[in-house]
Design brief:
heterodimer; A: mainly beta; 6-stranded mixed sheet; 5-stranded antiparallel sheet; 11 strands; 0% helix; 60% strand; globular; B: mainly beta; 7-stranded mixed sheet; 4-stranded antiparallel sheet
């Protein structure tokens, strides 16, 4: 059974720092992995989608990597800003076409 | 212009009541979803509709009944609400191909059952 884990559950860093959020999954048989951002009252926003054949995707200051064999993905945020404060969720589409979610990492960027 | 909208945003109601949550998307996508986010923040898919037809129906009590009057709408009706139904419910949409495609989410409806 596929399980997705995100550690840490919460992270607080000063503005301007680069940071890495981690996501691990137990079964490497996935179709893709997505990173989302959740803001209170605003739902989830898709940030990056990495297909199983890809190693990374980039969007602006965000870079997501995927290592399927080790069951890991990282979301790298460069030059963090207070507006980056949110909960970041990762989700994988498993071999049964189920979207399996992690519980998220709550990120706080201190001005 | 909001891509996926849900109403209401907050819903507080008594046990045993019947309530509905509405969802509308203006992205023109064929597939719509309902997710439940529990207190531990995990999202679990409840239903998926493609072109008004039910595709996925996870293990959800039959008190929950989705209705898709057209491709742009997927409403969720809940009968005989229970305390355990308290959660945030998210509507989402995406292109045909289901969960393999990027999904776009609504703002969520926080349901509190007293």
């Amino acid at each position: 059974k596929q399980e997705v884990t995100q550690i840490p559950a919460a992270l607080s860093v000063p503005e301007g720092e680069n940071l890495v959020l981690n996501c691990s999954f137990t079964d490497s048989a996935i179709y893709n992995l997505q990173w989302f951002r959740q803001d209170p009252g605003k739902g989830l926003t898709s940030l990056l989608l990495i297909q199983s054949s890809q190693r990374e995707q980039t969007s602006g200051r965000l870079n997501a990597s995927l290592d399927k064999s080790s069951g890991r993905s990282t979301l790298y945020i460069a030059a963090s800003q207070p507006g980056d404060s949110a909960t970041y969720l990762c989700a994988v589409v498993d071999s049964n076409y189920q979207l399996i979610w992690g519980a998220g990492t709550k990120l706080i960027i201190k001005p | 212009d909001t891509a996926v909208s849900q109403t209401p945003k907050y819903l507080v109601t008594q046990m045993g009541n019947d309530k509905s949550i509405k969802c509308e998307q203006n992205l023109g996508h064929d597939t719509m979803y309902w997710y439940k986010q529990d207190s531990k923040k995990f999202l679990k898919i409840m239903f998926s509709y493609n072109n008004k037809e039910l595709i996925i129906n996870e293990t959800v009590p039959n008190r929950f009944s989705p209705k898709s009057p057209d491709k742009a709408h997927l409403n969720l009706h809940i009968n005989s609400l229970e305390l355990g139904d308290s959660a945030v419910y998210f509507c989402a949409c995406g292109a045909s191909g289901g969960v393999l495609n990027e999904q776009f989410f609504g703002p969520g409806t926080r349901l509190t059952v007293l």
